[in-house]
Specification:
Number of helices: 13
Largest sheet: 2 strands, antiparallel
Order of helices and strands: HHHHHHHHHHHHEEH
Strand content: under 5%
Distance between the termini: 30 Å
Radius of gyration: 22 Å
Oligomer: single chain
Shape: globular
């Protein structure tokens, strides 16, 4: 069996984007995270979906037979343990806020209301919060909305892979094209985040097919690949910084090209992304993405409490968004650096003790299921 290649450069890209999402959600007065670039990187969520589609097509899409049960177990234990942990963490936060509220200490808003209403717990448990207009997409651990979308797209992908090799990629192309057309024509039958995920993920599947078709015929030349990689990085920056009609779907298509080019790992930008710090970010990317909101929630609460105790405006509301402010621009920027390091440390702990433990548990469940199937088969008279 052909060994599964790991796309180190693309993993690093995922890690860098996860860190940019942290900066996007971190609001500190006058810090570098308030620069226009960091305020607009939400478009990179399209990249996450495209990359997921590419990677899953690589890991599972080329298998002649995909066991849906094993696939489901693998994906479930890859995503759900950390999601559940962070949901419980946010519920615990609300319990603490509720206790403080009953003591007459109001922190921001009334506990267990709005995005944190008890009615939102079940949709989050079922990872349905981002799929309907009846639920709060950004409830509790708000970054998990994209995991909600990805989880059920994974299941659809698993169903698609039941078909023949030719038909599965034909179906992927149909799903992606139809979703893109509906987005372009503003006729989305589902909530826009679901349509975004469907269009980008299955476009990532097709991007992988293109990669498979040309990889043995294409010999990367370092200087030309470096130029192409730099051009794509500049194009990504331009897309982030500019508004225009149909920006999101156009960005998704551009991200397909970016993933395709960087999959060859042929230029100097790719070489840089394969160095220590970037590979670490890639390794921790899922944990960075899923845990950072809890850290920012805690820090914001600390600043709110400090504001109430000192009377200083340390947690101002600016254009409807809660900010943190020490009163010094220099200290604020240093604080951002400390928060970044803390986010990486928290992610490292979550990766080691939750994320990887979940993956290992999933493998044990799959192996136990296979052993049970073999025993049952052997017990049948031949």
């Amino acid at each position: 069996m052909e060994p599964v290649k790991r796309f180190t450069t693309l993993d690093s890209f995922r890690g860098v984007c996860a860190l940019l999402v942290v900066f996007y959600h971190l609001h500190v007065v006058g810090s570098f995270t308030e620069m226009p670039f960091f305020r607009r990187v939400d478009i990179l969520l399209n990249f996450f979906f495209v990359l997921s589609g590419f990677v899953l097509a690589h890991s599972y899409g080329m298998k002649l037979r995909l066991g849906f049960k094993d696939f489901f177990i693998s994906r479930f234990f890859r995503l759900y343990p950390l999601h559940l942990t962070m949901l419980l963490v946010f519920i615990a936060f609300e319990l603490v806020r509720w206790a403080a509220y009953n003591k007459g200490f109001n922190l921001n808003n009334v506990p267990f209301t709005g995005l944190f209403a008890p009615a939102e717990i079940l949709p989050n448990l079922l990872l349905l919060q981002a799929w309907t207009t009846l639920t709060e997409t950004m409830s509790f651990n708000y970054p998990s909305w994209s995991i909600s979308i990805e989880f059920y797209i994974y299941m659809l992908f698993g169903v698609v892979c039941i078909f023949s090799m030719r038909n599965r990629f034909l179906l992927a192309a149909c799903i992606s094209v139809i979703a893109f057309v509906l987005i372009f024509t503003e006729n989305e039958p589902l909530v826009w985040r679901a349509m975004l995920g469907l269009s980008c993920f299955f476009a990532g599947n097709i991007t992988y097919l293109v990669y498979r078709l040309i990889r043995d015929r294409f010999v990367p030349v370092q200087w030309s690949m470096t130029v192409l990689e730099c051009l794509l990085m500049f194009a990504t920056y331009w897309l982030i910084m500019n508004d225009f009609e149909d920006r999101s779907p156009i960005a998704s298509l551009m991200f397909c090209l970016l993933v395709l080019v960087f999959a060859f790992e042929g230029g100097l930008v790719s070489a840089l992304l394969k160095t220590g710090l970037f590979t670490l970010l890639g390794k921790l990317s899922y944990s960075i993405y899923m845990t950072h909101a809890s850290l920012l929630f805690c820090l914001s609460t600390v600043f709110i409490v400090a504001q109430k105790l000192t009377g200083r405006d340390m947690a101002p509301m600016i254009e409807g968004q809660r900010y943190m402010d020490t009163g010094s621009l220099l200290i604020n920027n240093g604080f951002v650096v400390v928060v970044t390091l803390a986010a990486l440390g928290l992610a490292a702990l979550a990766h080691t003790y939750i994320e990887m433990k979940g993956v290992a548990l999933g493998k044990r469940v799959i192996n136990a299921s296979r052993r049970k199937a073999l025993v049952s088969k052997a017990a049948i008279p031949g």
